[in-house]
Amino acid sequence: MASISLSFSSSLLPSPLLQDKNKATTATKSRDHHGSLCGVVRCAFASPARRKTSSTPSSSSAVGKKRLWKQGEFPGISSEGRSRKTPIKNIKKKLDRKNNAKAWANTVAEALSDLVLKKQWLQALEVFEMLREQPFYQPKEGTYMKLLVLLGKSGQPLRAHQLFDTMVEEGCEPTTELYTALLASYCRSNLIDEAFSILNQMKTLPRCQPDVFTYSTLLKACVDAARFELVESLYEEMDERSIIPNTVTQNIVLSGYGKAGKFDQMEKVLSGMLESTSSKPDVWTMNTILSLFGNKGQIEIMEKWYEKFRNFGIEPETRTFNILIGAYGKKRMYDKMSSVMEYMRKLQFPWTTSTYNNVIEAFSDVGDAKNMEYTFDQMRAEGMKADTKTFCCLIRGYANAGLFHKVVSSVQLAGKFEIPENTSFYNAVISACAKAEDLIEMERVFNRMRDKHCQPDSTTYSIMVEAYKKEGMNDKIYDLEQERQRMVADGPKGD
């Protein structure tokens, strides 16, 4: 196979902050120029109070002039007859400076919001620090909330805690919501003990008592980390504090028990939801159960639960049908898969990217490149945007079909579309290299993965170990095992 040449593209755009700042400067100059033209004060001097008879032309012309101001209303004379010297130009300069400062602050604040949306946490912090240095800028609770959530999602719990401490030092009153955002940042990094420390701190503050969202966040972290011994204790604590679990809370625990294969506990939670008035099952409950049995290939049980939820009055949504399509596709039940898609059209449910991904994945698993390509072309013809999973399925499908030259073109197309390259994407390419027995290119992709700070997972190491085993490269296997152990030992990092 020819070496797979990846096209990992990145376009460096000019900083939006500098562009907006230049625009603000241009606008400021325009306002100053316009103000200087309109700010010229023309005063029409009134004739003297006492008229003097004179034969000179100038005197006669002065007498004939029309007054523009009534007596006592002339702006240059005060009621006491003294001249009033109002520094009009100085006032205007101050107002212009103030308006310019506000315009600058608004422009930078917009840049901050844009960086938060793009999840560029480091640049967002730099812009925020720039704003904080201005005496006229006072950060609001909402700004801190957005930054805390961003840092949590970006795996930066320590920086989130530093920002939280800065907020408190500057006099911004912490709230339950802000504490919950900080707690969630530790939960996202699987730092359960630190999250419980935040919970205990909240209990000591009368105005920051934990609520159902705080406990739901902790419960999700516990079930994701398979620390089920903490789940019951959290439920007991909620009961002691008269905090009633809602449907979201129960769905989180239900999903956790199901993924761990604890079906007795899952059935207990589900039964409680059916009898409850505050946490009745909803479409998310339905999707959780269907996805659980669908992923396990237990189609009959999945279909029975679908009928049960429908009889309970829960209406399916697009995601529900996508789950059914994915389950049927994995079992190669193409007739039922097509029936669900036709049913979606009949009920006017739109086919989404996930719908097409499930169909592409079904053909990808069996190396059916023809139908896979047909589905992908139809997806693009309907204007549906492909995502990382789309290209993972395409790369795996072409590798399963032995069409390694199309693996290369798929990687290049992903670069052209600027598809985010996550761990799953790299794993798909590494697996394709291993199937092609091109270990040099496999190592090159693995190194690129680390250069891009994309964390390898257990699947990454398993693929590479199997590839080295086939070639009897025990030294390579030893190095990989050492690296994997270091990764496990280091655990999640805050920065």
TrEMBL record:
Q: What is this protein called?
A: Pentatricopeptide repeat-containing protein
InterPro entries tied to this protein: PPR5-like (IPR044179), PPR_rpt (IPR002885), TPR-like_helical_dom_sf (IPR011990)
The alphabetized UniProt keywords are: Repeat
Molecular-function annotations in GO: mRNA binding
Pfam families given in the database record: PPR, PPR_2
Q: What is the lineage of its organism?
A: Eukaryota, Viridiplantae, Streptophyta, Embryophyta, Tracheophyta
What ranges cover the PPR repeats?
140-174, 175-205, 211-245, 246-280, 282-316, 317-351, 352-386, 422-456
The organism named in the record is Vitis rotundifolia (Muscadine grape)
Q: Does the keyword Ligase apply?
A: no
Family membership, please give it: Belongs to the PPR family. P subfamily.
